[in-house]
Structure formats: C-alpha cells, structure tokens
Amino acid sequence: MSLDARVGVRLGTLALDVPLEARLGETVVLLGPNGAGKTTVLRVIAGLLALDEGRVAVDGHMLDDPTSGVWIPSERRPIGYVFQDYALFPHLSALENVAFGLRARGVRRREAARRSHGWLERVGMAAYAADRPPALSGGQSQRVALARALVLEPRVLLLDEPLSALDASARVDTRRELRHHLEAHAGARVVVTHDPIDAMTLGDRVVVLEAGRVVQAGSLAELRERPRSRYVADLVGVNLYRGTADGQRIRLPDRGELVAAGHARGDVFAVVHPRSVALHRREPEGTPRNVLAGTVEHLDVEGDRVRVVVAGTVPVTAEVTPAAVAELELTAGAAVWASIKATEITAYPV
Amino acid sequence: MRRRTRSRPPIAVAILAALAVVFFVVPVVGLLQRAPWSELGDDLTDPVVRDALRLSLVCSLGATALAFVLGLPLAWILARTQLPGRRIVRALVLLPMVLPPVVGGVALLLAFGRRGLVGQYLDDWLGVRLPFTTWGAILAEAFVAMPFFIIVVEAGLRSLDRRYEDAAATLGARGFTTFRRVVLPLIAPSLVAGAALTWARALGEFGATILFAGNLQGETQTMPLAIFVELQTNLGGAIALSLVLLAVSVVVLVSLRDRWFPA
C-alpha cells in the first residue's frame, strides 16, 4: 500500500475519522460536501496539521503516529500538494515556481532550471516560463502548480479541488489533461473534489465523506447502483428510499409503501433510477405495481432530458423527454401519477 | 428657491473646516516665505549645520537598521505564534508611540546611564558607555521609532496568505528558506513602508535624544537639536535645516500615499 492513513483530528465542532488507503498508480477521489473535512485530510497527510489519533504512512514509512511520537515534518515528506487556487508564489516566474522545490532540496541552479523547464514543456507551459502567476489564467496556473508538485517525483500526490477555480470552458480540456498527467505519475494520488464529474473522470475509486466520516467507498458505478446516503443519491442523480422490507413490500416512513421484485427483510435502502419512472396525467391501470400520486414541484432541463420532481406521500424524481413534458402538459403544480415497475426497484440492506 | 444637494455642507461646518486647513497650511507657508533661498547653500555648509545633517543621517539610518534587526523577529513572533503574553508584549512595544519622548529619555537614562540598571554593568564589564555618545543617540531614536516598524510589519505578516508558507513546506523548504525566499519578498511593501515611517520618526526625534544623548555638536547634535540651538543664534541655519526636514517629510508622505491614504 503506497499510502496508508487513518486520519483522526478534532477541529472545533468537526470530529474527523477517515481511513484512507491508496495503491501505487491508483487515484482515490475524496468526494463530499463543503465542510466535510476533505481538505483537512489532505493537510494531515501533507504534514501541515498533526494527527490527534491514527497514523499516516507512505511506502511503509511512518510519517505521523501520535502513539509512538513519530512526526516527520512537511518538508521531509515524499508528498506533493496542489493547493486549491494553486498558491503559486506571485513574486516568482513560472519557471522559478517549479524550480523552488528542487532548489530547496539543494539541486544546483542550472540543473534545477533544466529539469523545471522539462516539466513546463510536459504540461504545455514552456512558452510561459518567464511569466509571473498573476499574468497566468486559471488553467495555466493549474498546470504550473501541477508541474511544481510533480518535478519532485512525490510518492503521493495530493490535489485539492484542482478544477474548481476554472471556468466551464477551460474545465473540460484541463480535466482531460489532468487525467493524462495523473496516469503518468508513478505514485499514488488523492484528489479532493465536490464535483461528481471530476470524480468520474479522475478517480479509480471514490471515498465519500460527510461530516468527517466515510459514508461510502467504492467505484462510481457502485455508488450509482447502491448509494448509501441522500448526498450520494443526489450526487449520482437517483431516487433513494429507506424503509423496512417484509418480503416484496418495503414500508417507508410517513405511510408510503413500495413493492420490489426481490425478497428482502429488515432495514433496507431502495433505489430507483429516474429514467425508469413513468408519468401519467390520469391514474394508470394495468401492470405497474407502484403508483404514486403527487404534484409537480419543479422541472429541471438537463441536456436532452427533463427531470421532473414530484412531491407526494412518496416523493420521486422522473426523467422524461421534452416531448413528453409537452404532451403531458407538465407544469409546476400539475397533478400527476408516477408509476414504477417492481423490477426497477433495487433493495439492499442498510 | 435654491435646492440644496446633500454634498453641500452647512456653512458653519465649511468655515470651521476651512480654518483647520488654514491652520495646517499657514505655518508651512511661513517657513517657506522666510526661507533665505539665495543663501541656502551657505547656510547648509555651515559647520554646525553640516555636522547635524551628517549625524542625523547616521543616527536615523542606524535606528532604522536596529528596528529591522530587532523588530522583524519580534513582528514575526507577534504575527505567527500563539505565545502566551503576546498581547502584553504588543502593548509594551507600542508604549513608546504614546509615551512623551522626554519621559522615554529619562527612562533610557535610568536604564542605560552610567549608574543605570543595565548601564553600570555595560560600563564595568564591557567598557561600553551609551549616554552622550552617537550610539546613545541611535538608541534613543530607535526606542521612539521602532514601534512604527513593528506594527506595520506585523500587519503585513498577518495579511500574508499562510498557504504560501504551506506550499513552500510541502516543496521541501525549511523554515528559514521559506522566510527568506517566500515571506520576505511577499511582505517587501510592508518592510519598505515600515522602514520609511521609522526613519522619518527617527529623523525628527528630539526629546529622548537630548535627554539621553545630550546636545554635543558632531557627536549627538542631530538636526532637530541643532534647529533648537540655531534658532537663537543663526536663524538662517535653523530655517535651512527645517526645510530639509520638511522636504524629507513630504517625500515620505508622497511615497507612502497609496499605502496609507488610498483615494
């Protein structure tokens, strides 16, 4: 295991307890809402903040262990850190920024400049070597910050919201390039983000953090199929219910009920993809086992689909085509019936 | 009927405000109109005046250097550490800004004088005598002027984004390397402003200097002291020296205007 950490820190009202492992060549994405403690995890791994409990080890070398008193300071850890908003030194040129770490580690000026220039070329910034950071765009700054961290060949590379400072147009290209550079890096990577698309593009594995705790970990496909919290369900855009199963029936709080095809008992999650929810203006007849009455709360256009949020005893979000919205004359406040086939409901134990 | 806009002040307020402006401007005009412009060259080459100019330059630059060497570490500690008693230390450091300089002079004499708290040991053990020497004048000026350096630099350090220091640490830089290559260049504007204010204050120091260092021509008689003496015997020389100090003040004011008096 390249990175092996258990981060236990108390910061005001936030009590963090996050196990985190990353193999060589793996990118782990720390996903979570603001204030979940994602940046704090990175700061602890980098040695900018000391652990209260747990451990941080890289390649089997202990870096921080409160029980034995081991503490390796930041400047001696084999860890690279790309800060949110990049924190490039504004008084140094792009080249001097990249060379800073080599110079601090005693590499001679000429050699440091040569290697830094090589890295600026790799990230496509050679033409801007003499420019100071205030003159660079967000995407350019991000590439210089990446080169500054990678030139030291860190065993673990930490990236804090590497794309959030960019506008939408720069984001797509920079994201693809970043993925390419991450794959070329020989060590382990940890990326902090609150954006599921970043997580999907950059990560091999996702660790979801809420209020200082890991609520779910796995591949993004696993997260989509079996979300385990409201936050994750919203993130991947599915309907999530929690109830008590008794065979095929799942009793929800507030008198609602769903019928699933499988058999389950006890506390369960039930997930329904919005695409498998059909909407009707009259109460439907026929085979669907689940018919939910409600009123349209609002409609969100997402590309060529429209997400219709329906409020009722059992709230549900449906994804339909714009043509269906027009045909059914769906507007906010309209009374609708949503139907879901029992086979489209997946139930799994809490 | 004429309409009154809100930007037009009441007449009484306008008159009082205009009086305030006159009050500041008239003394400067008085100084300038009595200036013996044609004899300025002669006045400034008078031995007393020349000695005073030289000494003032030496002492004020010495005091500024002392503020740099001692004040910068203290500003860093005040801005960057959680040391207990920081607030008390800060209050003590700022005391000379509000203390009458004459009182500062008495205090310095009682501390560093030949029979003073510290001064007697400096004399007995090291043979160092501060009062009535150029070193004493430097010390007196530093005592009064250093707080300006410390508060300006501390504010500069406080407003510096900590992430630059974090970034330097993750790139392998130790504390001193980070300080030299990241912190110092980034707080350079504060260092310059602090040094300029300190220097200007040191240049004008009178009370503490005359009490602690005396008024010996060529030894401790700086410009303000010389002006005080010359005023009774050689008015031209006093005015010439005053003009020099006025010019310096204006230059410092103009060069710091963006920092202290944003439009």
Task: Summarize the structure in words.
The complex is a heterodimer of chains A (350) and B (263). Chain A is of the alpha+beta class and 350 residues long. Helices cover 26% and strands 37% of the residues of chain A. In chain A, the strands form four sheets. Chain A has a six-stranded mixed β-sheet, sandwiched between helices. Chain A is elongated. The model of chain A has no long low-confidence stretch (mean pLDDT 91). With 263 residues, chain B is an all-alpha fold. Chain B has a single domain (42-260), classed as MetI-like fold. Chain B has 14 helices and no strands. In chain B, helix 3 packs parallel to helix 7 and helix 8 (162-170) runs antiparallel to helix 9. The A-B interface holds A 43, 46-48, 73-77, 79-81, 83, 85, 87-91, 100-101, 104-105, 148-149, 152 and B 161, 163-164, 166-174, 177, 181-182, 185-186.
C-alpha geometry of chain B: globular
Helix content of chain A: 25-40%
- What's the number of structural domains of chain B? 1
Which structural class matches the secondary elements of chain B?
Answer: mainly alpha
Query: What profile does the largest beta sheet of chain A have?
Result: 6 strands, mixed
Distance linking N and C termini of chain A: 29 Å
Name of the CATH superfamily of the largest domain in chain A: P-loop containing nucleotide triphosphate hydrolases
Number of helices of chain A: 9
Per CATH, the superfamily of chain B is: MetI-like
- In the CATH scheme, the class of the largest domain in chain A would be Alpha Beta
Please compute the radius of gyration of chain B using only Cα atoms: 23 Å
Uncertain stretches of 5 or more adjacent residues of chain B: none
Mean pLDDT of chain A: 91
Task: Give the SSE map.
The complex is a heterodimer of chains A (about 350) and B (about 260).
Chain A: E1 3-11, E2 14-22, E3 27-31, H1 38-46, E4 53-58, E5 61-65, E6 70-71, E7 79-82, H2 94-104, H3 109-122, H4 138-150, E8 156-160, H5 168-184, E9 188-193, H6 196-202, E10 205-210, E11 213-218, H7 220-225, H8 230-236, E12 239-251, E13 257-272, E14 278-280, E15 290-302, E16 305-312, E17 316-320, H9 322-327, E18 335-340, E19 346-349
Parallel strand pairs in A: 3-9, 3-10, 7-8, 8-9
Antiparallel strand pairs in A: 1-2, 1-4, 4-5, 5-6, 10-11, 12-13, 13-19, 14-18, 15-16, 15-18, 16-17
Chain B: H1 11-33, H2 40-45, H3 47-80, H4 86-98, H5 101-112, H6 119-126, H7 134-158, H8 162-170, H9 175-186, H10 188-203, H11 207-212, H12 223-233, H13 235-255, H14 257-260
